[in-house]
Amino acid sequence: MLKSTGVMIRSGTDAIKTYYKHRAFEYDDIYKLRRRQADLAWLRRWVTRHVKGKTVLEVAAGTGYWTQVCSRSARQVVATDYNANTLTVAAGRRLGSQVSFVTADAFRLPAFETRFEVGMAVLWWSHLKQREQEKFIAQFLSRLAPGAKLLLVDEVYRRGTAKNPISRLDRFGDRYEIRVGKDDVLYEIVKNYPADDDLKRALSDHCDQVRITRLRHFWAISARVKVRQ
Ligand SMILES: C[S@@+](CC[C@H](N)C(=O)[O-])C[C@H]1O[C@@H](n2cnc3c(N)ncnc32)[C@H](O)[C@@H]1O
């Protein structure tokens, strides 16, 4: 907890988990914004193409908007999230027997029986502190097969449309926002907007064939998990 002028602000690693727990039932509103529809249509086609016929592990799947997109062309999708109630919303989409849901922390994924051909995380990277990125990526990729595809999508900063202003930058360069939760609690949430060089650097030890596409509101990365000799 942070105390500022008597107001309690929830911060730390659990803040994002609790904040999204309370947002589960209105989270999909972000996909209804008119200004985002052209980008979202592009991203749906991009995801559909990359996962076609593949086994997919998704982390921080939330309410399953992108799980649903995957379900239409992937062979198998395992969608994970820390919050069981976001996955309940996702399960309500009735996506078919090729899709399963597992409550799991993105930093402590279970050992699965097989390694997946695609790993996907949408609107998750921006919530990682820079010093957490290596820990996350190393264990996420350990659940994927060598040569598997990594798909990351997140938001581009747009002045005027980013509704939550920056509250502070820490000494590591991580950017924070104060958000009002649906439970009327204030949360301090990490929200980073990395440059292409930051993204390439974060992936360079683990991936090759890194391709970054910047749309108006989102960036999208496809990369290949390195095949070690
Ligand atoms: C911004 S939402 C993105 C949801 C979904 N991927 C989408 O794009 O619609 C972030 C998600 O991360 C989940 N989350 C937060 N901390 C997590 C953690 N440590 N491990 C796994 N999921 C986490 C939240 O429950 C929430 O569903």
Structural description of this entry:
With 229 residues, this protein is an alpha/beta fold. Helices cover 27% and strands 32% of the residues. The chain has one domain (2-29, 54-225): Rossmann fold (3-Layer(aba) Sandwich). It has helices at residues 13-23, 37-51, 65-71, 84-91, 130-141, 196-203; strands at residues 2-4, 7-10, 55-59, 76-81, 99-103, 116-122, 144-155, 166-169, 175-180, 186-190, 207-214, 218-225. The strands form two sheets. The protein has a seven-stranded mixed beta sheet, with helices on both faces. It has a five-stranded mixed beta sheet with strand order 1-2-10-9-8, with helices on one face. The mean pLDDT is 93.
Number of strands: 12
Identify low-pLDDT runs: none
Q: Remind me, CATH topology?
A: Rossmann fold
Architecture, CATH level 2?
A: 3-Layer(aba) Sandwich
Strand order of the largest sheet: 5-4-3-6-7-12-11
The outline comes out as globular
* Main sheet attributes: strand count, strand direction, barrel closure: 7 strands, mixed
**How many separate structural domains?**
1
**Strand residues, percent:** 25-35%
Alpha-carbon distance between the two ends: 47 Å
Mean pLDDT: 93
The helicity comes to 25-40%
Structural class of the helix and strand makeup? alpha/beta
CATH class: Alpha Beta
Helix/strand order: EEHHEHEHEEHEEEEHEE
What are the bound molecules? S-adenosylmethionine
What is this entry, summarized?
The protein is α/β, with parallel strands linked by helices and 229 residues long.
